[in-house]
């Protein structure tokens, strides 16, 4: 058995937590992402020199077609995950902002997400949802409904 030579990187990302009634805005990771088929908050990586709030607005617009306005302070989440297919250990630092959104919902074309949707919270327990998304939703909206 050989030892894997892991590359280690840190990734800063901004995400939006938006609600409409009992539903939350989520985006599904596409086949070209490292998390294909899993759902998360809309958002993504902060580019070099970009302010996290600007990254949030850009990413939400790319993934959902919606205009996001930050309405509160972010929850900061930090975790390390291994992506064996790329021999990568990735330290995620995520800023999860409460947001209001407006506009017409649409899906990203040819990106790392393929579907955006308003999902009733009661349906989340039966979906493949990334753990950071569950943590952010609990922080801003309370426990998942039974």
From TrEMBL:
InterPro entries (alphabetical): Nudix_hydrolase, NUDIX_hydrolase-like_dom_sf, NUDIX_hydrolase_CS, NUDIX_hydrolase_dom
Pfam families per record: NUDIX (PF00293)
Gene3D superfamilies given in the database record: Nucleoside Triphosphate Pyrophosphohydrolase
Keyword list, A-Z: Hydrolase
Protein origin, superkingdom: Bacteria
Domain Nudix hydrolase: 8-142
Family according to the record: Belongs to the Nudix hydrolase family.
Protein name: NUDIX domain-containing protein
Annotated organism of origin: Demequina zhanjiangensis
